[in-house]
UniProtKB/TrEMBL annotation:
Function: Binds the cellulose synthase activator, bis-(3'-5') cyclic diguanylic acid (c-di-GMP).
Name used for this protein in its record: Cyclic di-GMP-binding protein
Membrane topology (UniProt): Single-pass membrane protein
Gene coding for it: bcsB
Record family assignment: Belongs to the AcsB/BcsB family.
Signal peptide (UniProt feature, chain positions): 1-20
GO cellular component: plasma membrane
InterPro entries for this protein: Cell_synth_B, Cell_synthase_bac
Residue ranges of the TM segments: 763-784
Amino acid sequence: MKPVVPLCLSLTAALGALHAAESAAAPSLPAASSALAASALAVGASPSTSTAVSVAAANGANAAHAINAASAINAASTATSTPGSTATHLSFAALGAYQPLNLRGVDDARSVSVGVRLDRVVTAARLRLRYTYSPALVFPLSHLKVSINNEVVATVPFDREHAGQIVTQEIALDPRFLTDYNQLGLRLIAHYTLDHCEDPENSSLWADVSPTSELILDTAPIRLPNDLALLPAPFFDRRDGSRLRLPFVLPAAADDATLRSAGVLASWFGAQADYRQARFPALSALPSDTHAVVVARSTQLPADLKLPPVNGPMLIVADNPAAAGKKLLIVTGRTAAEVDQASAALVLGKTAMAGPAVQIGQIDIGAPRKPYDAPRWLPVDRPVAFKELIDDPNQLQVHGSAPDAIRLNLRVPADLFSWNGAGVPLNLKYRYTAPTVQNNSALAVQINDQLVKSYRLAPASADDAQGRLQLPVLSTGGNSSSSALDIPAFRVGSSNQLQLRFNLDSQKTGLCQSVASNPVQAAVDPDSTIDFSGFVHYAQMPNLAYFANSGFPFTRYADLAQTAVVIPDHPAPQELESMLTMLGHMGQWTGYPALRVQIARSRELTQLTGKDLLVIGGNGSAPLLARWRQALPLSIGAASSDGAADSAITRASFSVKEQWRNGAHLPDGSARLERDGPLAALIGFELPGSKGRSVVALTATDQQQLSQLLDMLEKPDRVAQLQGDVALLRGGEVDSMRVGEPYLVGYVPWYARLWSKAIQHPVLLGVLGAVAGLLLAIGAFTALQELAARRRGV
């Protein structure tokens, strides 16, 4: 790899250098220059502001200027590139293309998105493409076009020798085409005959691109200025699609107030990371290799930090003295209350932050959130228009005969309940290029890849169409016709997807008949609606699936106003990491920081009232859960082979509805599971003495096993296995069961409860119906007899 030479140029000089290198890549230079100037203006810099341009020397000649538009952020004196180039391998699967990219027809395209971090600049790039193509193609005419941001950068010809086989080809890419946000496009140009009447829908026109294809980027670091205006970068960079790993540096024996401030920040970063997931290790010293967040009072900050005087709540961005080129976000104040104000100011974004440090004057966190109003949840009190679910109206439009589905993400509360078996009303309006004759053109409505209904698209006599249907996905198990279409993952209330898939069939009526030169199109009206307002909030608990998919019942209030996180009196770093990471998950699920969460120690349990409890403890035999021993569906302890307690765990004993001690009597209907080696468990139960209040405990035989629970919650296939009130994690495998007594949360009207009970006994319901009908008939007959007698004057 060639060395990267740091060079600091003014913008004028940079553009002059680009003009000089025009012969190397003329099409890309104007776009790169415009992006550079636009980026400088976007951050408040004038066009003459100097910026960092990394130059990669190639054999001493033809210098390739690797420009990242996001690097133009401040003066050249503060934004300079540093040595330390690294290579990053980004598979298509890691970029979101989990399935093969299937290219069909004479002209079909797919794309993947890739971002470049703000603190990195691309010095070299190459595409390692793995693909297969049809052996029936006319090879001199068929090929793949590779583009970056709609600029064609390479073509990949096909040959007969490798047709039908997996081909791996590495393509060098000009790094000047790569900015902060990029679209890597692949377009298939395919022909199977030289005749003029080629059928564009012929089955021999295909190529598949493997999700193992890679984009390999060589990047060099850029030294960013200490500027709060860049937040959340570089601590979280939305251009980076990988999992966020951000350490929190906390003082030794941090108090509850400090941990609460750290938890609020973790929930905010978790909301920013969203689908990427986030992990927040807890450290007592500055990390030597990464960015970090420091949360502490001014007297507890690391001694080697050189900071301005702290005279109140402050937010500071500073260089990490333990890691060259890395930054620290310091949230501090003279008291715990001031630290809390600083964290609230950051997550609410109400402070005009700029420069290396800012002091918070006053902050108001606003009124408490209402139930079920999380920003990432659909409103459940009114119909929701599709335009509220998208960022761009183009997301509701497709073109081509077999386009990808229109996808709408739906995140709803986990406790929605349909007492009468009704579905979700969907008022769907759509438009399409109408076929000239009746054919197989259709619109399929799916929820989480499960077909709900399919509409046949009418021919040209009706240009527009609309339909109304019920999505039978939230009905009760007592209704057999509805249960056939139940989708448990959707009922859980986590992230769900409504898919509208158009299939616009070919209008050819015979060989060599004319084919429309313009591609057919279809669109869903943004005013189409979906309505969850007819449902009540009612759920049978405990249900670990609710928790693992959406954080319910804690996320019922987006600010976690009715949640307390209970940790041991002297938490280990792994337990603090679990606390911060779980609060990050809460922020991911709700899209809102946990501004009103409460942090408590096990000794403070008696002081917690009116709260749902998230309990974290890495030692199942600790006193943290001992007081609830009789209520626990599962207790964890460690014993040696002779039954005595052993600090070095040699056997983990799991006792269901019973103490874990060896030789204890097991009541009917319970079980004991014993296994050598470490285990972790997720447990749910009703808080003893508090009707309807829930406890979810993350526990294990030792603190090291808590990381397995955190890993499990990041894997959709493992989360899908969670249910009931006990989940054991052993060697990466999940075993779920229901052991304890269920309890109910929410409210159902009396008539709904009566009807729900009645439909469980259809024979009795039929008899009662017949009796009621007979009584009604007798009453009507008697009334009519009296009326007739009155008319006769009797």
